[in-house]
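re: ur question from yesterday

yeah so i grabbed the chain u mentioned. its 258 aa long if i counted rite. heres the sequnce exactly as i have it in my notes:
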Amino acid sequence: MTSLHTQESISSPMESTTDYHSALEHHVEQSKMSSVSNMINKATLIHMPRSEYDEAIEILTSTLSLLSDNVRANAQHETTFQRRPLQKPVLHFSSSQSAELFVGVHGIQRVFRSPICVENGSDLLPRTDTLEILSFVVIYNLALSWHLKAISIPVHDDSRIPMLPKALSLYEFTSKIMANGGINGDPLPYMALVSNMGALCLDLGSTQRSRACQSALLSTILCCVDSKYTTTNWDLLLDGFLWNASQGVFETIASPAA
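ran it thru and got these structure tokens back, copy pasting raw so excuse formatting
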């Protein structure tokens, strides 16, 4: 005869089915996030270090489309995913040890060439904050791909001209995501963004905007030094960022008084 305790411990068929569908949904959504991260890392770890910018742009554009689909679908499942522990994307800037962290532009500015990778893609769920961070990563890498492709083309080649505004527009979009609080904590993504925007604006002849970026970069550097911030290759990064930030300061000092 089955005891009352045993009867109470047996789940109903409806509960078992619900748990199964919930687990299956979790697995499917986690697989989607893993696919997004794998696509990001394929572009940033394979194609961009080889200067295969067309391939990187194609992959990142497809990744952005996949993320957009997840954003739309997320509205239906956000409540379900909110119940689960939050795993935020773990980001890092990729750079080959044999590659320079910065590449020069006309001997004046340096472009920070390291793209952003995602370390824990298989642990992520399509929550709003996660999708926002991944969108930032994809759009930043897309901007960087267009930027690096443009500066790899000789200055007299007109084919590079439309690439520069495209890269700037994408950088500006990542700046808006950052301004909304989507990317907090590590100052390195902000420094990379404003440093590259400053270099790009100077390349486009927008001196005033370039100096605004240089000023923001210098302020952030001073905060990092004051707080004793450090990260991998910090000395090399600091040297490159200080070079870019100092250009506006030196130009101002060198300019004759009105």
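noticed a couple things. The domain at 14-254 is CATH 1.10.3450 (Hyaluronidase domain-like). also The CA atoms of residues 22 and 80 lie 9 Å apart.
anyway ttyl
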